Amino acid sequence: MRILLAEDDPLLGDGLRAGLRQLGFQVDWVRDGLAAEREARAQSYAAAVLDLGLPKLDGMEVLAAWRRAGLTLPVLVLTARDALSERIRGLDAGADDYVIKPVDLHELAARLRALVRRAHGQAQECLVAQDLQLDPAARSVRQAGVEVALSTREFDLLQALMLNADRVLSREQLEQQLYSWGSEVESNAVEVHVHHLRRKLGAGLIQTVRGVGYLLTAKAAP
Question: Of the candidates 48, 58, 56, 45, which has an alpha carbon nearest to the alpha carbon of residue 6?
């Protein structure tokens, strides 16, 4: 799950990036509002963590620009601005959650997972498709009740497909969900991960839509 982090404090930003990575997120960290506004338009993110006191462009202006541009990515505002009027203003401007610093890292991760679930119309904590159950918090997968060991990339790819069940995702869309900045991406990386998932979970689970991408259906074909 790829997250955009906009935070100008170097110590806090580095700590959040490292901590969220340990909890299974791919994190791109920007340090000013102009970079945040630009990157959200250029890349595909599952959610954004947005500080309001950013240099070059205030976080509230960044949020307003995203919403004016029609960007629907879930946005969690993480700020020291704790006045009630600021919280109301942030939520009315299009924030999906508003959290006051400091925040426990595990709570932040749980809030991000909840935002992403809701953005994809998922009400339950665990994702379910066919005979699979994926727990994003525990980073575990069960098939017909039996736990299946997956690598980090395999888990992330399966999560992306299950969040978008019944929707075809292109290789480029999947790459953007799997890899943050600085990651070396082999040209056939997605195909290799799909091959491994089919070997572990069944050849018919992930369908190839020729010339378009990959599809995982919520219900097994009759």
Answer: 48
66: left (phi over 0), alpha (psi -120 to 50) or beta: alpha
Amino acid at 23: L
Query: What pLDDT digit, counting tens, does each position of 71-103 carry?
Result: 999 999 999 999 999 999 999 999 999 999 999
SS3 57: coil
State the DSSP code for 97: E
Q: In what order do the strands lie in the sheet with 127-129?
A: 127-129, 132-135, 140-143, 146-148
Give pairs for 185-191: CB < 8 Å, separation 24+: 189/153, 190/157, 190/214
**With 0-12 CB in 10 A as exposed, 13-18 as middle and 19+ as buried, what is 144?**
exposed
- Residue whose entry in the numeric block shows the structure tokens 């969040």: 163
Tokens 């509002």 map to which residue? Answer: 33
Distance between CA 170 and CA 107 in Å, rounded? Answer: 32
Residue 180 and residue 43 in contact, taking contact as beta carbons nearer than 8 Å: no
**pLDDT more than 70, % of the chain:** 96
